[in-house]
Amino acid sequence: CSTHNTDFEQFCPGSLSPGTPSAPSVQLQSRCKCVGFIIYLLFFRLSHCNLSEKGYEDLSSVLSSQSSSLRQLDLSNCDLQDSGVKLLSVGVKSPNCTLETLSLSGCLITEEGCTSLASALTSNPSHLRELDLSYNHPGLSGMKLLSAGLKDPGWRLDTLRYEEYDGSITAAGLCLFSPSDSCQLTIDTNTVNTKLQLSDNNRKVTHVEEVQSYPDHPDRFDDYQLLCRNGLTGRCYWEVEWRGDVYISVSYRSIRRKGDSDDCVFGRNDQSWSLWCTDDGPHSVRHNNSYTSISSSSSSSSVSNRAAVYVDCPAGTLSFYRVSSDTLIHLHTFNTTFTQTLYPGFLFLWSPGSSVSLC
Prior knowledge:
Strand order of the largest sheet: 8-9-20-11-16-17-18
Largest sheet: 7 strands, antiparallel
Radius of gyration: 23 Å
């Protein structure tokens, strides 16, 4: 089949997998119809692709078309979020939708998105058999809504995948990750700036006025920052508590250590990514000296000064969250290609008193 025949290529080039005549599992033809394209196929994969709102609307139109024969749809690790799920659910609820397998792993879906899916499957329960919601955060109520479908004789759903909370990691990380993804951070003491004080068995870092008696080391930062020893691969999740002005970061180990230029400071270069937090809450994210503000609703004083970081290195996604008592509030996700091993790090601003504690 020819990929130029599908309108989805403008959103995510090369997204058809497999997409060549040598792949007999794919049957694809397309023709122009009013708003978008009607696509005939058995399997369509758009994992690791971030479509626009129009893209999800077009995909929903495909699902609801009388001509559609789509049976499997993979949107894993797309920045779908609840808004995209709502658009997609319009197609799923159509009586014309014959989708049997829907993969939405790692799509930043919360309880709101699960409600949309449950409503769609209640309207059209006769086809979908397998739903993958692993590495999302639907909360207990979202899981209950969809789990009820497994017991409903009117639903055909027989497989529902999600990472079930087992109490081994804080409840706020519910369903976003599996316990095996939890990363126990260890501070690399050779990188700690001399005005950063370590305490609590090196689990807490505080910016102080007094110079600490650390030995000279080529890895030690001149700026008020440090790296952890943990080289990140695969999927990794961790939480930290902050006080004062700090940047919660990840960086390549090759970042410069000496001097005060942008090449040395987390978030100000293409080597690092940061979330800026103060006592008022998270304010912005920064990469390569480009700032993106965090919405004021994410800075509510009703939640803790605890942040969560989730990185999927192969997928090229880095997500920051604020921790509430029973959920994670999504702040921002970077989508990129990581070319080196990542290391967690922390940057402290000028005023002493700020601190970070590893959870």
